[in-house]
Amino acid sequence: MADRIFRGSRLVIASHNTGKAREIAELLAPYGVEVTSAARLNLPEPEETATTFIGNAELKARAAAEQSGLPALADDSGLVVHALGGAPGIYSARWAGPAKDFSIAMARVQRELEANGATDRRAHFVAALALCWPDGHCESFEGRVDGTLVWPPRGGKGFGYDPMFVPHGHDITFGEMEPTAKHAISHRADAFRKLTAACFAR
User: Fold this and answer.
1) Alpha-carbon span 78 to 23, nearest angstrom
2) 154, 147 in Cβ contact below 8 A?
3) Domain residue ranges of the chain, discontinuous segments joined by +
4) Active site residues
């Protein structure tokens, strides 16, 4: 079945994470789409009960589309650490606690690696994007970027686990990288390339 093309002018970013909403808005800027966020519309955050990144992205986008009456785009992303059996994975945000303090989450990753005596610092980020319409139709895409983890964290330009992640082929973390450079190689950018090629006409 052919992908559904987004033909509207307004889109809800189904996120209460300001860093994530800002990054998605920047990636959408070339397409002339007016964006607002679930937080700005005071939409409730649905409980993320799916077992995959795409499942949780669709759950969030579907809820925002139904509640707002507008197409909604949701991202579910996380850090997959090889030596931790894929953790934190879909629980990446939960590791940051109720206050969403990712310094706590990064410290937990480091603590668990040390507790395991792990020397393998390989990790990858996954981003799943789901674009859902109020009628329930969804288009979903997944992106990935591989890298290694460093400690202590470095840089304050990104968000989430960015300050401890060095993408392959680079010697600085996502937290040290300019946004335009990160957008060119990130997991979210990879998923966005697939999404926009399928659903957005320039």
Assistant:
1) 15
2) no
3) 10-199
4) 76
